[in-house]
Fold these 3 entries.
Entry 1:
Amino acid sequence: MEIHENFNKTVAIVFWEDYLPICPTIISLAESFAGKSFKVDIYTTAINKRYPSICFSSNNISCFPLINDDKPLNVHSVNRFLNLFTKNPSISLIIGGLFKSIYKYSNEIKSIFLQRRFIRQTNPKIISENYQYIIICDATGLSASEQIIQYGVENIIYLSLELEYLKKLNFFTTPFRFLCQKNQIQKLHKIKNIIIQDVLRKNELINENFLEEDNHKFHFIPNSTSKPTSLKKSAYLPDLFNVTNIIILHLGMISDACLSLELAKSFKNQQEFSLVFHDKKFTDSNDPYIKLIKNEAGKNVYFSLNPVSLSELDKIILSAQIGVVVYNKKLGRNFELIANASGKMIMSLRLGIPIIILEMPGVREIFEFYNCGIVISDLNELIPAAQKIISNYTYYRNNALKCYSALYDFDKNFSNFYDFLNP
């Protein structure tokens, strides 16, 4: 990739999402470029206050969130309001879902206007800064970089984190996402360099956006972080919940997208193992879905609802013995093709935590080759799989570390990408 000699040693990252503090790929890219003496500027939408504070390891990284003075609907307040009228979690969940649908649609409309403001405020600045590289993330980022792309694309790199499909979006229910995805199909053809997690997701991106593969250079970087500084076991979760059982940890979303209710039910009469949900964002313990799970699950299911930054997440993972990764296949290919895109899986493997994972495309081949955990086809197989791992724990733990080193080591994958940019 040839870069004009007048460019400064700087990188801009355009990330039009609110979950920057918990996004391994963006944080790792920023810190890796900063480690190469680049100045990195991240332009993003307003960061959701329900996520933990972000902490970068380098002073060469700056973050410029879009200032948003509007006060959105407080979903926690809605949940507390509903609890005054019904003690039935199922009814609260249904009514709460209606409120959240209205909330989501209003945010879709609002996002259209916010993105226009973002374009006016940041695009001229990004162009004038003469960045050596501009990394634009996903369809929302492409849409938010309208003037930048019109100015020129030779120094633009596209980063695909989420797969979205125009045919599954509806202009009348998700107008913002619909317009962004339509823009992606139009604009992605112009960009040569594309970062994506693996071949399966690359093929999806090509098919959905009608790309000619020979016109693009694909760089494979998994949704990962650098090697840990320590593998010392932690007592964080046992101390937090005063449990002595073997802990199986679920990181990230507590929702139907991760079959959280079904997962919890599989522990209902379990005495040997405890399941801990560690949410990625601050969540009210009175949330109807949380209450529903508590009502349906056994006493050995716990909720860690105060998230930590990525830099502190290791202490939580290292206090568990096994990780569990479950996605709802009904939500489409973005959730199915997670072999190299699941942050919770990769973050656990890098610390030597074996994984039990519900079968998805590409997963079984990896797990059977490296023996870093067990693939199950049904949640009824989870407890027997956990017992098998515990019976030969050192074997699975060592293989988890080998799998991370071979496939998911961010530094190794970034080095290949960086060497391409700077031959």
Note: Confidence is low (pLDDT under 50) at residues 1-7, 69-77.
Entry 2:
Amino acid sequence: MIGTIANIQDDAYEGKDFKKVTLGDGKVLNVKYGKGGSLKAKWGELVEGQTYEWVMGEYNGKPFVRDFIFVGKGLAPTPKLAEAPDKMTPDMWADKDKVTRLSIERQTSVKCACEIASDDATIEQILETAEKIAGWIANGVVIPTETPKPAQKATTGAKAQVTTKDVDVELAESEIVADKADIKVNMDWLIDVIKTTKWDIVAWVKDNCKVETKGGINQIVARLDNDQKKLLIKHGQELENLK
């Protein structure tokens, strides 16, 4: 091997002197007596800053200097640094685009959730809404564009009488509306599942819903009640996960 001497130190082991040589790359060599004192006779040739070819041997599994040959002053080759790739591969770009897309989807979902949240909504409620929106974006499902009707204000004059029962009824009705909206969105998404999985929806409806299966897909689905539609959607999601 070729190496330039950076430092030379006198050292000894068990009463025997030797030269401790440190090369420019940090490797340390012990130049001892050599056979018949051949190396000791050449110690004077070792000079810091000069380059040598180091002839190595091995004894009991450990390397040792067998000989050294002067090459020149400061001629050791400089180790090459690993070159960075000059361009990204298609897979690297795909991974980068995926991370960027997910980041944009999450930011957009949180922004939308904050805009539609009520003033007293908790962080947990906002994040739950954001998660649903992110799911819609990821699956390519179109979000219904129906604008909710503004809440009617209480008339002036006599105080409006609101009971707990009235509030319960109002909440129940809003849950039904939201439930129907979710069903509508998921049914739109389900059409794509039917096309991509070659699912025989007519046979499935006949076996599981016991309703008339004449007509096209839209006509068959229209005959299902909400519970049957939910069951249909759930089965479609299971098929989608198997793809």
Note: Residues 2-73 form a domain with the OB fold (Dihydrolipoamide Acetyltransferase, E2P) fold (CATH 2.40.50).
Entry 3:
Amino acid sequence: MIIDERVAISGQTMEALYRLVTRWDLLLPKIDPSVLELTMKPPQGPVAPGTVFAERLTMMGRTVEITGTIRTLRPPTGYDYDATSEGLDGSGTMTLRDLGGGSVEFHVHIEMRPTTVAMRIVTTLFGRKFRAAERARLARMKAMLESGTLVPPA
């Protein structure tokens, strides 16, 4: 299953957004109310290849644990990662692109590969819900950044 979503954000530089999207531990709990806990290893600080994010969230009434590992960084345009969860292997890219006129596009591309029959059924039946959840995350991020309630780290 593929999730491929984009949002244009005004009033931020690519560099500022890069600092924010590479600090998933600061960003995700603010833009996704389903996140129960998110830890980063090594602990808080700039990410590097090999940085691991452990995320616990509520999804369709269940607590789900996802482990993501940064594979490559592409400053200031994004990063690539691998992720695993019960019944899923996945990978993704987070990419920033300057649109000119003070706007930056944030593009999220996630590929989920079910490793069990049960998860294949779940991703087939609920793929639209997963995509809608990612769209909602991006919409919250855009609104918070543009209103000033979310500020990229210095």
Note: The first helix runs from residue 14 to 21.
